[in-house]
Design a protein that fits this description.
The chain has about 500 residues and is mostly beta strands. The chain is built from 3 helices and 34 strands.
Length: about 500
Amino acid sequence: MRSIILGGHKLRARMLLPVAVVALAGSVLTACSSSASSSPAVAKTASVTSGAQKYQGHLSLEPSTGVPGTVVKVVGSGLPSGQEVQISWQQITGSWQTTSGGELLGASYSQTFKPLTSAATGADGSLSASFVVPVGFGNSHAVQVSEAGKTINEATFKIPVSAAISPQSGPVGTPIHVKVAGIGSQEYRQNWYLMYDQHVTGWLSAVTTEGIANAIIPATGTPGVHELSIYEAPDREPYLNTQQTPTKNPMFTMSFTVTPGDPVLPPPADAQSSTPVLAATPTSVSNAPAVWLNYASGPPGTPLVVKGSGFPAGQTVKVNWATQKGNHLYGLGAADSSIATATASSAGTFEASFAVPSDLGQPHKITATAGSVSASTSFAISPKDAGITPTSGPVGTQITLHLLGTGVSWTSNIYGVDYDNSDIGYACGVNSNGDITLNLPATGAPGWHYIVFYPAVWNIVNMKFATADYIQVSQLTYAADHPGEKLSAFEFAFQIK
């Protein structure tokens, strides 16, 4: 990995992505040359005296800043007299955009105006009404007053960023809930990073969760006070001197006290792995060839039963499993293998069973063939915690951590790895058919140490400066806001003796 300095920003350029780096550089130069007061397009709020649109009268909000749930008074004067008016809120909606091939395009935001309440203006054109601030993204929102579908005035309400943790103390391994609300949808306000004792833990996103980021991390370190910090991050690393940035985003520091006592250890491997999901069973059997499964998805090792009908009586039915071989560097290709056989009954039915192999976490086509007759269905593999060995030892002990069934898409093929809440890198299982075997030396003081695999994003097609800074970083908000598959994190613990 090498670094490129563009416009005062340090960019980590990967040699495998030269085109993406150029696109990123262009965005950086544009961002650095733009005015600090320019408004992001997604949340642009018209001025009351905008030259593009003439508004009538005066409108104010009391208060004009607050968190969702705040009761706001709308006060107007000089408006059309004796009219029923609608008060609407600028609502932002976020979504992740991916291609059909599993490539991430990035985050996308759209806006609508959500009706909040209606009121009648007085004979003198005055207005007095109130509304409750909805849950939504942070920063500025336009509040419009309209009559007969025409906007007659508007004012701006600002939702600030806030952060909190709970609990504030507990033994090592205690789950710490981190919540950040009021994250914005604009550039330089979308992405935030959590640090634990001055080490980057991971990325906090809120694209599909209306500006609210929720994460859970284990308490780590020796007994005593540990500091959690939250920073805005436009460049894959926290921007530390936030008070001097153009946007002046706040930073937050909160303390957690690790107390003496028994550790809170991770759940066992089986509890962290996904459970098989039952498949739909056909209600009737026709003469046309068909196959179906007992499960639609599950981790490697799931006991799978393939049933079929409409096959030539007495003939051998071969069951094939389809997968992909290769990697994203040199290319992926299709590969099939025979996984089971059966003999069709006199009625043309068959049944075969096998354990789902260790393979890539994605849908796999299963085809049953007898002569010229065939039928197909599919089974989706989900990731599995395959354990940690050993679980204790002195400093320097080689720890082996094992996952199976990891994915192939850009949003499922890597996991960010944290050691004691420090993001130390990522691991990928594409080239090894979904198998991630990670060997790490045990480091740190005597006691328990926690290693967590978090879902992450390998790459993004549209490498914009302010929206591509989260690639190859542990996504702490994976549970509600991962761009793509629904994935789990996997937590392990090792005791240094």
